[in-house]
């Protein structure tokens, strides 16, 4: 089971879209995929039409019951989607209270990792959609994964946000003495603007090989797909956006295979 975390401390950069698009593509290929929503905004949960406010079990229970949750209970928290091979661990607003609840307890950073370990036979890939906040949820997501994908909007202000994210990663890496491989994913690329092009070049200058050589274009099909509650690859398989995510997936799978630390 491979676990990827999709994170950036900025909202609206395409984290949830990237999680859903890549998850959908992996499921299309017959991989068993679990999408973990730990953003209290629950965008990913709502994407699939799951009613976040009326759940018996959710990611919140995973964190609050901690070691008390059996593998069976964890499985009960998972929701199937209309997409074959694609399940969701749904989020609820209550997750926003976690930092206050568990902030200082020891071992609180490894709860998600331990929970996912229980389903390692059931899934090939787990993709974690993280809130844009440095806190117990992000720490858990990073501890639980083997790779971090960082969607970054190709515009100059977004590069500032990325600096913050990179400092956070260094902070977490130092405290855990473990540096995760990461891939920066340029998103919302508008080929009609120079700013988009320049931001992409600047990303390469700053982060070199960590920046995926392609980019995810602005594509209205993503919004249409989310309105239809379908993964992009099944809603518009030949769209520019889906083709771009396909080539991103190929890139990341190659990195994983090569075991590169990029
Ligand atoms: P985040 O999870 O980082 O907050 P989202 O993935 O929810 O960002 O994207 C924010 C908004 O932008 C959503 O309405 C989404 O549909 C839209 N969006 C994301 N990526 C694209 C894209 N490549 N082209 C067009 N719209 C996009
Ligand atoms: Mg989101």
UniProtKB/TrEMBL annotation:
It comes from the Bacteria. Coiled coil: none annotated. Residues 1-176 form the AAA domain. Signal peptide: none annotated. To B.subtilis soj. This is Soj family ATPase. It comes from Idiomarina xiamenensis 10-D-4.
């Amino acid at each position: 089971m491979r676990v990827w975390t999709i994170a950036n401390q900025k909202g609206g950069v395409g984290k949830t879209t990237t999680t859903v698009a890549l998850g959908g593509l992996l499921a299309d290929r017959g991989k068993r995929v679990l999408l973990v929503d730990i953003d209290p905004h629950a965008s990913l949960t709502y994407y699939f039409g799951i009613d976040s406010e009326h759940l018996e079990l959710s990611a919140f229970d995973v964190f609050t019951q901690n070691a008390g949750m059996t593998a069976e209970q964890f499985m009960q928290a998972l929701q199937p989607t209309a997409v074959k091979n694609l399940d969701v661990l749904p989020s609820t607003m209550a997750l926003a209270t976690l930092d206050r609840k568990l902030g200082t307890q020891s071992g609180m950073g490894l709860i998600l990792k331990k929970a996912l370990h229980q389903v390692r036979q059931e899934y090939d890939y787990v993709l974690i959609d993280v809130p844009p906040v440095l806190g117990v949820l992000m720490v858990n997501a990073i501890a639980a994964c083997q790779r971090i994908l960082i969607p970054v909007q190709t515009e100059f202000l977004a590069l500032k946000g990325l600096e913050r994210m990179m400092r956070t990663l260094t902070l977490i890496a130092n405290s855990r003495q473990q540096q995760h491989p990461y891939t920066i994913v340029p998103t919302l690329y508008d080929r009609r603007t120079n700013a988009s092009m320049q931001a992409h070049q600047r990303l390469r200058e700053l982060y070199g090989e960590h920046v995926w050589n392609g980019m995810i274009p602005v594509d209205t099909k993503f919004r249409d797909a989310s309105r239809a509650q379908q993964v992009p690859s099944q809603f518009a398989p030949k769209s520019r956006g889906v083709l771009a995510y396909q080539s991103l997936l190929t890139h990341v799978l190659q990195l994983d295979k090569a075991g590169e630390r990029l």
